[in-house]
């Protein structure tokens, strides 16, 4: 997936059958670290190249491209869809729950509006419902990183292939 505007130039390639290998090019070091964390904990191989004019545009557009790439990678596969994971990192304890059923929704607790915006844009672009809850934490860095780790673990669980659809409605597919 690629997105090029006056504000950003972003490309993302994901491999759901990976081992968490990554190549991330981004000048915002903390954001780069969070994307590396997402790759590692989800076991998705990620190759992402990001450039842009300001932090807000970079983070928002990256979320949209990576979310869209995830949706495309899942395609019409019959997957587990749902996962909830809680991660502790030092003072922080954060829970993330997702449902990848192409019913986008986001209820995000996060101490930084920029990263709240990332999670929301990612959920909308990927077609997932996502909730994040902060149980404890005073260090914003630890809370955000715990959320990325929990999201990665959720994605790893949710994209597992199933033999049978997990729905009483019949077929539920991300398109």
Summarize the structure.
The protein has 175 residues and is an alpha/beta fold.
Can you describe this structure?
It is a single chain. The protein has 175 residues and is α/β, with parallel strands linked by helices. It has a single domain, classed as 2-Layer Sandwich (Ribosomal Protein S5, domain 2). The chain is 38% helix and 29% strand. The chain has four helices and eight strands; from the N terminus they run βββαβαβββαβα. A four-stranded mixed sheet has the order 1-2-4-3, covered by helices on one side. Helix 1 (29-42) packs parallel to helix 4 and helix 2 packs parallel to helix 3. The radius of gyration is 15 Å and the shape is globular. The chain starts with a strand and ends in a 17-residue tail after the last helix. The mean pLDDT is 94.
Q: Descriptors for this entry?
A:
four-stranded mixed sheet; single chain; Ribosomal Protein S5, domain 2; alpha/beta
How are the secondary structure elements laid out?
Blueprint (H helix, E strand, L loop, with lengths): L1 E3 L3 E8 L6 E4 L3 H14 L2 E8 L2 H20 L7 E8 L2 E8 L5 E4 L4 H14 L2 E8 L3 H19 L17
Parallel strand pairs: 3-4, 7-8
Antiparallel strand pairs: 1-2, 2-4, 5-6, 6-8
Helix pairs in contact: 1-4, 2-3
**Domains, number:** 1
Output the CATH homologous superfamily.
Answer: Imidazole glycerol phosphate dehydratase, domain 1
Q: Oligomer, anyone? A: single chain
- Write down the CATH topology: Ribosomal Protein S5, domain 2
Question: Roughly what percent helix?
Answer: 25-40%
Question: What is the typical, i.e. mean, pLDDT?
Answer: 94
Intertermini distance: 15 Å
Q: In which order are the strands of the major sheet placed?
A: 1-2-4-3
CATH top level class name: Alpha Beta
Question: Percent of residues in beta strands?
Answer: 25-35%
Tally of helical runs: 4
CA-atom Rg in angstroms:
15 Å
General form? globular
